[in-house]
Write a structure and sequence with these properties.
Blueprint (H helix, E strand, L loop, with lengths): L1 H8 L11 E3 L6 H11 L8 H4 L2 E4 L2 E2 L2 H4 L8 H10 L3 H5 L2 H11 L2 E4 L3 E2 L10 H7 L6 H13 L4 E2 L2 E2 L13 E2 L14
Parallel strand pairs: 1-2, 2-4, 3-5, 4-6
Antiparallel strand pairs: 7-8
Helix pairs in contact: 5-8, 5-9
Length: 193
């Protein structure tokens, strides 16, 4: 792919005007394997992997499995925030983001998480969807998000796009989440959903 772009834009544009990206879901080591493949496979390894790929990307989330599957009618929005607060560092090992950081550093490429963040999506029907969505709007929701973001940027991530894996209220997304948007475009201060 980089050869095609190089033929159009020239070598000097690679990494500035054009960046080739290899991406994989957080729980998959696909883009890590791709970088290793480029480094170890002839004739591709005539150039370092950063010649072919300028950005690695992944999608790490933090979540609590009990909250994700909860059908407990007494679950509150604060219960959701408390569970997320206890697992904000979860993504570092379970979602392989520490491995992505190490591989990006090894090969000298940027690391951008194309989606990620809190995840309370459910496969247990629509039970508690409103409670999970409401958790986004509590002031205490800021703490687990800050912990997650501070951690990823302190550990070498170059960029991040929030994908809210939390369920959203009926008619506003679905039980698997959405990219960030505001309930009202004119409201620039309320939490995003």
């Amino acid at each position: 792919v980089s050869s095609v772009f190089r033929s159009v834009y020239g070598d000097a544009a690679m990494g500035t005007k054009v960046k080739c990206v290899v991406a994989g879901q957080g729980v998959s080591a696909g883009s890590i394997s791709a970088m290793d493949f480029l480094a170890n496979t002839s004739p591709l390894n005539a150039h370092p992997p950063a010649y072919h790929i300028q950005v690695m990307s992944s999608a790490p989330y933090f979540y609590d499995t009990a909250v994700r599957g909860s059908t407990d009618p007494t679950l509150t929005a604060q219960d959701v925030v408390d569970a997320l607060s206890a697992t904000a560092a979860y993504a570092k090992t379970e979602e392989l983001y520490d491995s992505y950081v190490a591989t990006a550093g090894k090969y000298g490429v940027e690391l951008i998480f194309y989606e990620g963040g809190p995840d309370t999506a459910t496969d247990s029907g629509d039970t508690n969807n409103n409670v999970k969505a409401d958790a986004n709007f509590l002031s205490t929701f800021q703490a687990p998000m800050e912990a997650f973001l501070n951690d990823i940027f302190a550990n070498g991530v170059d960029g991040f796009i929030l994908y809210n894996g939390d369920v959203t209220p009926p008619g506003q997304g679905g039980k698997y989440g959405c990219w960030s948007d505001k309930r009202s475009i004119d409201d620039t201060t309320s939490p995003k959903l």
